[in-house]
């Protein structure tokens, strides 16, 4: 172990020092130390990437694609993204030359967007419960996060949005994530149109994280980029739709005037995404648009399996309209301190799930279950949960 020079101990970014590590990862790491534990903590598809996508990557490597790519991504992929968004979600056609950047995952797209479009002290509205990364990145940029507690229905309604804007008239932007992590909630066209009307009136920048757009069960996903393109930065990627989490291909699109700045931020962070991974993403968007369908059908069956198991154990949860998470209320006869509950659950029956409070206000007393796991594992998980409940009665 190398001991740092004592004179350098304080040589750190003090803003970053005050940002805690990902709370999901902290919980998951603790669970990983328990032998025999079954974890449903991370949003990690248990499917493999499609074979034709893997072959495209292999072919690209064999063709010696080992050099720098254009900073904003190879043109073939940017063109594929533009066509995909227009043809699949009815967005305007984004110019591949000036309105699209390929990023190293959606997480880098979020970082680049925050870096490019906010100044220290700017106010960003973030509906909660939500994915903790947003607030962490905002804090590193000295962006003021304004929480919008959506509990108990976990929907941003016009009334909730208006009340938040009245209380914070200087807000510059709102971040929307739907289908939602952690709740699985998504929005109808009418609900989005009502929100878009208010956002248009207030000239708010909309950062719309739609990484789960292909995993909507009962209706077609509607993108905010379709309803409010002149104010929307759309973030997505291939991780969830094509089970390509480890390949790290995301993208961000929006009006050229804003994307010029996002592109500069992206370039300063990573220079460019890896060429072979972009070849795989191009193949996925050109020839693999049906790949998510089979996965989505399986996820829907797994959702119903978990909902049934939760109900038998005494938990209540709204039926998720998308993604692969269920946000369930801990029944009153159990310890409703969600952090204490999940640790006791892990110790007692070796089942690891995420506490709702780590997702922000409105998540207290809830648990998040990821059903991006095998059907067999989910059946075992529900058996263990029911056994735990029976022990505690």
From TrEMBL:
Enzyme category, top tier: transferase
Reported cofactor(s): pyridoxal 5'-phosphate
E.C. number(s) listed in UniProt: 2.6.1.-
Domain (Aminotransferase class I/classII large) ranges: 37-385
Xref: InterPro entries: Aminotransferase_I/II_large, AspAT/PAT-like, NHTrfase_class1_PyrdxlP-BS, PyrdxlP-dep_Trfase, PyrdxlP-dep_Trfase_major
GO molecular function, a single term: transaminase activity
CDD domains xrefs: AAT_like (cd00609)
Pfam families (UniProt xref): Aminotran_1_2
Record's keyword terms, sorted: Aminotransferase, Pyridoxal phosphate, Transferase
GO biological process: amino acid metabolic process
Recorded family membership: Belongs to the class-I pyridoxal-phosphate-dependent aminotransferase family.
Protein name as annotated: Aminotransferase
Annotated source species: Weissella bombi
